[in-house]
Design a protein that fits this description.
Helix content is 36%, strand content 44%. It has 146 residues and is an alpha+beta fold. It has a single domain, classed as Nuclear Transport Factor 2, Chain: A (Roll), CATH 3.10.450.50. A hairpin with a 2-residue loop joins strand 4 and strand 5. Helix 1 packs across helix 3.
Length: 146
């Protein structure tokens, strides 16, 4: 696959991921299933902490946050992509704004995403964003029934 074509494919996969991330922040994580690989070795490390391994574990935090989220957006800036054969990585800054359980959250995170070419289509296999103690505290408060 030519480098320019691969770069275009990864950028399209990133666009789909960030569209799905924005939908999750607005209360619907369904489209995450379309952009993620469903392999047992996919991973994520969210701003809410922890580490998930395997699609079944990775999808849970997306669904949990979507269940509490509304009116959200997530955008990216400073996108940097490198393609190395059938694997690519992306460095970016995410800007998130949403309401979680009636409480407002605005944040900015550095993020790293890794993509893999599967059956001719780029899929995300890893997402890592900065840990956000405010986000963790807000979720813990919601769990305790603040």
């Amino acid at each position: 696959m030519a480098i320019k074509q691969a770069d275009t494919g990864v950028r399209a996969a990133s666009d789909k991921f960030y569209k799905a991330l924005g939908q999750m922040a607005a209360g619907n994580a369904d489209s995450m299933a379309e952009v993620w690989s469903h392999r047992d070795d996919v991973t994520t490390m969210h701003p809410i902490g922890g580490r998930e391994v395997g699609w079944e574990a990775v999808k849970e935090p997306w669904n949990a946050v979507a269940g509490l989220a509304e009116k959200g957006t997530v955008t990216r800036k400073d996108q940097f992509i490198r393609v190395m054969g059938d694997v690519a990585y992306e460095l970016t800054t995410e800007q998130a704004s949403m309401t979680l359980g009636g409480q407002s959250l605005d944040a900015e995170y550095r993020a790293t995403n890794i993509y893999s070419l599967e059956d001719g289509e780029w899929k995300i296999v890893h997402h890592h964003a900065d840990l956000d103690p405010k986000f963790v505290e807000l979720l813990e408060g919601l769990e305790r029934g603040m």
